[in-house]
Write a structure and sequence with these properties.
This is Gametogenetin-binding protein 2. With 143 residues, this protein is an alpha+beta fold. It contains six helices and five strands.
Length: 143
């Protein structure tokens, strides 16, 4: 579970972000720092439902790697469109939009296995895409 580790007020922009930390921009004068645990993609630490695993592995084995890569790419236009439909709070939506645009500009390893490419494409790391258990954990445990 992610946790709040710092609150930065105006003038404290030089916060030393660690690898699994992201800024959450509240407004021009306030930024909160959220930290994700390193164990997010710990495949062995979660209980697997045998019925879900069987169905997932059958579907996964039917896909070619190239089709999987394409299916799990989301354009920035799709991200913004989904945000406008799914996040009714304008302030919350703007905060997420700011985080996304910040990730496009600078990259952000804290969100791994999610990665945002420089042109705004949201996808997954190659290690996650090629590992059936990691994908299962992402979709069925954290989904």
């Amino acid at each position: 579970m992610a946790r709040l580790v710092a609150v930065c007020r105006e003038g404290e922009e030089d916060y030393p972000f660690l690898a699994r930390q992201i800024p959450l921009y509240i407004d021009d004068t306030l930024t909160m720092v959220m930290e994700f645990p390193d164990s997010v993609m710990d495949v062995e630490g979660h209980e697997i439902n045998p019925a879900h695993w069987k169905q997932f592995s059958e579907y996964y084995s039917k896909l070619k790697q190239q089709n999987l890569n394409i299916a799990l790419m989301v354009t920035s236009r799709e991200v913004y469109s989904a945000l406008s439909q799914l996040v009714p709070c304008v302030g919350c939506r703007r905060s997420v939009e700011h985080l996304f645009s910040h990730s496009v500009e600078r990259g952000n390893p804290a969100l791994e296995p999610l990665i945002v490419k420089p042109k705004g494409m949201l996808t997954l790391t190659k290690a996650c895409l090629s590992d059936m258990k990691k994908l299962y954990t992402l979709f069925y445990i954290h989904g």
